[in-house]
């Protein structure tokens, strides 16, 4: 009995790809003769924009499934400045991809500073993402101590102020 090399079998399929978020967004891929069904579908999905969840229906493909994971969120921190004097503040702008509107993210500081180095002892907080963007201010307090430059960075976290770190800013220097 001969062994069948499944990768070399040519299959004629009709695929219907539907975006699960916007079911009215339907792409029909015309029947074609292909040697690797999974690679073919993945290539076709690369040509369909703004998919956040996908249902693939294949006709004439036996016991075949494809799972397309949701897009992986990304987080980028932009700073209004890399140096801040005591008594002043900087603004952090967070640009995201694949993060839902109204998602609450959290920020914390890390480095050679303590909560007393920030106005209201606030070395952490939260902000909301809208249209893949969020912003918050960090204010350096006038602590009256002459300790020289202090360096810290901002970390963006999911779920809580002690959640997973998804981005870290460039270093920020606080000057007396």
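^ Assign residues to that structure.
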């Amino acid at each position: 009995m001969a062994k069948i090399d499944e990768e070399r079998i040519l299959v004629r399929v009709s695929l219907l790809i539907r975006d699960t978020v916007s079911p009215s967004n339907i792409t029909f891929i015309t029947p074609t003769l292909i040697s690797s069904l999974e690679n073919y579908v993945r290539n076709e999905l690369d040509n369909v924009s703004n998919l956040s969840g996908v249902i693939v229906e294949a006709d004439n493909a036996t016991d075949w499934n494809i799972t397309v994971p949701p897009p992986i969120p990304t987080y980028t921190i932009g700073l209004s400045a890399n140096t801040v004097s005591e008594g002043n503040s900087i603004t952090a702008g967070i640009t995201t991809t694949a993060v839902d509107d109204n998602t609450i993210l959290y920020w914390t500081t890390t480095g050679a500073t303590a909560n007393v180095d920030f106005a209201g002892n606030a070395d952490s907080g939260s902000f909301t993402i809208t249209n893949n963007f969020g912003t918050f201010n960090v204010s350096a307090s006038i602590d009256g101590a002459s300790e020289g430059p202090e360096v810290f960075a901002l970390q963006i976290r999911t779920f809580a102020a002690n959640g997973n770190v998804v981005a870290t800013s460039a270093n920020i220097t606080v000057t007396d």
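The first strand starts at residue 11 and ends at 19.
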